[in-house]
Amino acid sequence: MKPVYSVALLATLAACGGTSISENVVSSGGSLASPTTTIPAVAPVPDTAQDASFADLLNGVRRDNGADDVTYNAQLNTAAQRHADDMLENDYFSHTGLNGSSVGQRVQAAGYNFRRVGENIAAGYQTETSVLDGWVNSPGHQRNNIDPNFEEFGLGFARDGQDTRWVLVLGTEQ
């Protein structure tokens, strides 16, 4: 049976919102662009050390808001990294991939059988601390950050010079 996707915007900040899918229903709530944007097309190698330090930051935010910690998931990380790379390489910024894919389709393609999945995207931020601060200060993104139904995460990061793309994917498997 194919999942059914419906889209509803929850928050708007500098481009759109962020995306959260629950029981195969999509709702949007977070994309964030910082003021700096120049887009050359080179994608870096993912930094798993960054994912570990980001987990500490994200879980601090979650604990401060009464949510349990999330743990790193390689499949979610693959989906997040692929989307960050694609946005940077192809000079766009959207929750929808150039091929029309949604976050749910991207995590399934990475082998993650989700019950619930959410996505925050950002551009132009230079550090994991600054991008998380941006997401915390955006209501739609923060809803995803602290959603107690999420159990795992992956973080995608692509940089070329000062241009960056960040993708945080949060999920819970079936």
UniProtKB/TrEMBL annotation:
UniProt cross-references to InterPro entries, sorted A to Z: CAP_dom (IPR014044), CAP_sf (IPR035940)
Domain of life: Bacteria
Coiled coil ranges: none
Pfam families: CAP
CDD domains: CAP_bacterial (cd05379)
Positions of the SCP domain: 56-168
PANTHER family noted in UniProt: SCP DOMAIN-CONTAINING PROTEIN
The name this protein goes by in its record: Uncharacterized conserved protein YkwD, contains CAP (CSP/antigen 5/PR1) domain
